[in-house]
Write a structure and sequence with these properties.
By secondary structure, this protein is α/β, with parallel strands linked by helices. The chain has helices at about 25-30, 45-55, 80-90; strands at about 40-45, 60, 75. It has a single domain, classed as 3-Layer(aba) Sandwich (Rossmann fold). About 30% of the residues lie in helices and about 15% in strands. A 3-stranded parallel β-sheet has the order 1-2-3.
Length: about 90
């Protein structure tokens, strides 16, 4: 498997904007030196989906049964294990 870069990016200060503000996602994309359309965000919440959409990052919704967005999520997964297996197959 080739190297997959990425990481976990969270708030640096208590007064940092919360999702659905896309600030943190845009910052993570910039730190990776990547384009938003070449990135992937995995999450479980509608606010994460909204933030990824605003940042123009592809979003995989894990367990979309709780999705409440105004349109269906484009990509879904039943859990994290199928995503890990897919990444390992690259």
């Amino acid at each position: 498997m080739g190297e997959l870069t990425g990481g976990v990016h969270g708030r640096e200060r208590r007064d940092s904007p919360l999702m659905p503000d896309p600030h943190r996602i845009r910052q993570a994309v910039a730190r990776l030196g990547a384009r938003p359309d070449r990135c992937l965000m995995i999450g479980t919440g509608d606010t994460e989906w909204e933030a990824a959409r605003a940042a123009r990052v592809t979003f995989v919704y894990v367990d979309a049964s709780s999705f409440r967005g105004h349109q269906d999520p484009e990509l879904t997964s039943s859990g994290l294990l199928p995503l890990l297996r897919a990444a390992q197959s690259l």
